[in-house]
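Hi support team,

I'm filing this because I wasn't sure whether my run with NAP finished correctly. The job status page said complete, but I'd like someone to confirm that the output block is well-formed before I use it downstream. Pasting the exact inputs I used:
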Amino acid sequence: MFGFARPPEEQAKVADVDCSEQTILVTGSTSGIGRAAAQSFGRLGAHVLVHGRDTEAGAEVVDEIESTDGTAEFLRADFIEPQQVSELADTVSESVDTLDVLCNNAGGLFETVEPTSLGVDPAFHINHLAPYQLTAELLDTLGSGSRVITTASIAHRGTTLNLDELMEIAGLSTAAAYARSKLANVQFAAELGRRLTAAGREVTSNSFHPGVIPGSEFGRAFPGISSELFQLFDGSPFTESVEEGAATLVYLGVSEDVAATTGKYFARRRENRPSPDARDRTAQRKLWKESAKILDIDEPLAEYADASD
Ligand SMILES: NC(=O)c1ccc[n+]([C@@H]2O[C@H](COP(=O)([O-])OP(=O)(O)OC[C@H]3O[C@@H](n4cnc5c(N)ncnc54)[C@H](OP(=O)(O)O)[C@@H]3O)[C@@H](O)[C@H]2O)c1
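And here is everything the job wrote out:
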C-alpha cells in the first residue's frame, strides 16, 4: 500500500515540527502503535515517557529514541492495578513541570471478562478506567496548549454501553467487552474536552481510530489460531501498518492544524463523526460520574459537569 512504513511524522506532515521543548507520555509504547508514535516523537526531539509492563521492550524503545534526536525514560505500570496508575501519575508530576502531550494509548482485547479488583471486565478497566484515572491525576500537570489523545477504535460503532449492566458479565464476549470499552474512550475524550474548555484550561482532548493493524501485538489475546490469521493480513490493502496508525496519533499530538480542536474523533488524520451513542452527552456525563464512583476518586472537573448540557 502506498505510504506503508513511511515514518508517522512524514505521513502526518509534521516532520519539521520541533518538539525539543516538549515532554510527551505515550502509554502502551512498548509495542505497536504506541511504540511507533514514541519513536516518531523522539525523532522530532521530544522527551518521551515510554510506558508499558514489559521492561525489556521499554528499555529497547528508550535506546531507539535516544539514538535519534529525542530523550526518553521508561516508566512501568500495570493498568490493572489502580495503585500503579497512581504511582505513574506521581512519577510524571514530580519529574516534569508540564506534560505537553498525554497519549492514552495502552490497551487491547483481553483473554477473559472475569471481573478485576474494581468488579468490571479487564477491557473496561484497562482501556477506560485506567486512562480516566491517569488523566484525572495528571490534570494539574497539563498546561496551556497541552493535548490529551485517546486511542479509541472503529469497534465503538454498533455497540452500546449500559452502565447499569457493567458488572454483569454473564454472556459477555471478550470482543463485546473490547467494543464497549472503545465506546467509553470516545465518550471520555469528548466529555474531557468539554469540561476542560468550560474550565478555561486551553487543554484539548481528542480520540481516534488508528486503523485495523495486524502488525502490532493487538491480536495476542485472540482465541485459538485467529491471532496468527489476523497477522496474515499485515500488508493487505484492507489494513494499516503500525506507522499509519501512529501517524494519526502523532498528527493529533503535534500538528498545528489541530492545536485548537477539542472533543472530536478522528480517523486517518481527518475528523470523523463517531456513533450516535458516542456523541450522546447524557451518556458521556453519566460515564464520567460512574467512572469516578467505581474508582472511588473525586469526580474530576466536577464543577464543570454542566458543560455537558
Ligand atoms: N491493532 C489494531 O487493529 C487496533 C485497532 C483499533 C484500536 N487499537 C488500539 O490501539 C491501542 C494500541 O494497540 P496496538 O494495536 O498497538 O497493540 P499492542 O501492540 O498490543 O500494544 C498495546 C500496548 O498496551 C500496553 N498494555 C496492554 N495491557 C496493559 C496493561 N495491563 N498495563 C499497562 N500497559 C498495557 C502494552 O504494553 P506491555 O506489552 O508492555 O504490557 C503495549 O505497549 C489499543 O488501545 C488498541 O485498543 C488497535
